[in-house]
Design a protein that fits this description.
Layout lengths: L1 E6 L2 H13 L4 E6 L4 H4 L1 E2 L7 H11 L3 E4 L2 H5 L2 H7 L4 E2 L3 H8 L1 H10 L7 E4 L2 H9 L5 E5 L8 E4 L2 H12 L11 E5 L4 E9 L4 E3 L4 E2 L2 E3 L3 E4 L4 E4 L6 H21 L6 E10 L2 E8 L6 H5 L7 H10 L13 E8 L24 E5 L2 E4 L2 E4 L3 E9 L2 H14 L18
Parallel strand pairs: 1-2, 1-4, 2-3, 4-5
Antiparallel strand pairs: 6-9, 7-8, 7-9, 10-11, 10-16, 12-15, 13-14, 15-18, 16-17, 18-22, 19-22, 20-21
Helix pairs in contact: 3-5, 6-7, 8-9
The chain binds adenosine monophosphate and glycine.
Adenosine monophosphate (AMP) binds next to β7, β8, β9 and β17.
Length: about 425
């Protein structure tokens, strides 16, 4: 069997690693991959965001199954193109991907399907936005409608901050000129958690829950990032809560997709705020989370390939997914300066010294250059460890994190409940 994974992050490395574990003999390919993925798969040049180009690669290499990691190709309609050509693809069609690619679409979908979320208003111009903000209490949350690589949301503490962000969107067009819609919503407080499920639109199979750490510095300080580390399970999660999430959020989402004829086959990620009044849906992502995938897949005992095939065939109701009781922690090693500007091309040392069999190193922004592994992005490596309890898993991950060296290396020291610097 030949499988192609699209993407170049830690998430895609975790997917490749898991597929390799499930199928030692599979032919594995990645577009474009990274400095770690290339040890497990053949990395191919190509524009991962172009459905036609990747379809050409699938034909050329006789690929049986394509797994789409990031949201951009999904929003560009890769699954529509592949399905039309009769190619097996894991990931939703463009209409389904709009749950992530358009905040307005997602919020309207939540509203018409009675899914609990923050109250919101949509603005279509700078003037309208300023008027709405003038009548609101702060903090409030401002969301650019389109994809913005994790930078499209601001929790505004006051009018000055809000005005700067809105000016950036409407006047400086920091996210591009086409889409100028903005969602303004109530700021919710509570604990965030990531709840991911496989779905073929009829059935959903939840994954183990995970807790991401979005801010760059310890104690949830500093700017938002793509995610600085994760642990699984989430410590604030219990079975009562899961029941509420299923009944109030997941099932109405599935019913909404069915009613609106959106044939969704892939992963659906629910970004949830556990508030005093119950779980509220902050966002959908239409793909595996990153770094969530780096703690979830190491706990997955069933074959990921089998589950993905069941999703594509629409036979998920017959599938079963088993999870390890072990806990997992992933610490992200980032480039100095991330999520702002950072240098690349810096040699990474110490990778070969990590001998702990509970530890797996997932590469994100890395590449191989003249036999060396060098940095090539903001989030560089994800150090994941399993353990009988979360403290042990964190201890293993941090011991490995200390051994790996590159100039400017930065990581959070509190990716474990109760852990301080
Ligand atoms: P989103 O892409 O919509 O999940 O937003 C990114 C991040 O912004 C979330 O992970 C939260 O940390 C924060 N956020 C989004 N919406 C809200 C909200 N209504 N209240 C508080 N924080 C929010
Ligand atoms: N960890 C957040 C995301 O994948 O969007």
């Amino acid at each position: 069997m030949k499988i192609l994974v699209i993407g170049s992050g830690g998430r895609e490395h975790a997917i490749v690693w898991k597929i390799r574990k499930d199928n030692p003999d599979a032919g594995l390919f990645a577009v474009p991959g990274n400095g770690g993925i290339c040890d497990d798969a053949e990395c191919l040049q190509g524009n991962a965001n172009s459905p036609e180009q990747t379809a050409g690669i699938v034909l050329d290499k006789k690929i049986d199954l394509t797994v789409v990691g990031p949201e951009v190709p999904l929003a560009a309609g890769i699954s529509d193109v592949f399905r039309q050509k009769g190619m097996k693809v894991f990931g939703p069609v463009k209409k389904g991907a709009m749950l992530e690619s358009s905040k307005c679409f997602a919020k309207d979908f939540m509203k018409r399907n009675k899914i609990p979320t923050a109250d919101f208003t949509v603005s279509y111009s700078f003037e309208e936005c300023m008027k709405i903000l003038g009548n609101r209490k702060f903090p409030c949350v401002i969301k650019f409608d389109g994809l913005a690589a994790g930078k499209g949301v601001q929790v505004s503490m006051d009018m000055e901050e809000a005005r700067d962000f809105v000016t950036g969107i409407y006047k400086d067009k920091i996210f591009g000129a086409e889409n100028q819609k903005v969602v303004i919503e109530d700021c919710l407080s509570g604990t965030e958690m990531s709840y991911l499920a496989f779905t073929d639109t009829k059935t959903f199979l939840p994954m183990v829950p995970a807790k991401d750490h979005k801010r760059v510095f310890d104690g949830d300080r500093g700017p938002n990032t793509g995610g600085m580390g994760c642990y699984s399970p989430s410590d604030t999660f219990n079975s009562g809560m899961e029941k509420t999430i299923r009944e109030d959020i997941v099932l109405p989402t599935l019913k909404g997709l069915q009613k609106e004829n959106i044939d969704y086959r892939g992963v659906l990620y629910f970004g949830i705020m556990l508030t005093e009044k119950g779980p509220r849906l902050l966002e959908y992502n239409v793909r595996f989370g990153d770094p969530e995938t780096q703690v979830i897949l190491p706990r997955m005992e069933s074959s990921l390939t089998d589950i993905m095939e069941a999703v594509i065939e629409g036979s998920l109701e017959k599938a079963d997914v088993r999870w390890s009781e072990k806990k997992s922690v992933c610490v992200i090693l980032a480039s100095g300066g991330y999520p702002g500007e950072y240098k690349t091309g810096i040699e990474i040392k110490g990778l070969a010294e990590i001998k702990d069999t509970d530890v797996t190193i997932f590469h994100a922004g890395t590449k191989k250059e003249n036999g060396r592994v060098v940095t090539a992005g903001g989030r560089v490596l994800g150090i994941t460890s399993l353990g009988d309890d979360i403290e042990k898993a964190a201890g293993n991950a941090y011991r490995a994190a200390e051994k790996i060296e590159f100039e400017g290396k930065h990581y959070r020291k509190d990716i474990c409940p109760g852990r301080k610097d």
